[in-house]
Amino acid sequence: MSAKKHLHIYRRVDIGKKEFNKQTRRWERLNSHIVYKCVLDGCSHYQIPELLVGRTAQCSRCGGEFVVTQRMVGSDKRVNLYCDDCKKDKKTKATEEFLSELGLVE
Length: 106
Description:
Blueprint: E1 10-14, E2 18-21, E3 26-29, E4 34-38, E5 46-47, H1 49-52, E6 56-58, E7 65-67, H2 70-74, H3 84-87, H4 90-102
Antiparallel strand pairs: 1-4, 2-3, 4-5, 6-7
């Protein structure tokens, strides 16, 4: 039985080893191993960041298609991968809409 063909929606996960520290009574990470996992139901796809660059993925915010770049994968702050159009903050989008209404920007 073949798997369904679909675009993946990626989320960064750390699958490194953990160990329980008896003194602090907390789990501590021994080593870090970052991978990207598809969050769609029924999909068990994992990919290391180096092989993810250049692949087509689905945006986790708007649902559109985009190509993953090294900048997207290299960012420690970005947990879900999303397209550059969704990257713009609300103020930037509001400013662009206002300028386009005035006819100053197309």
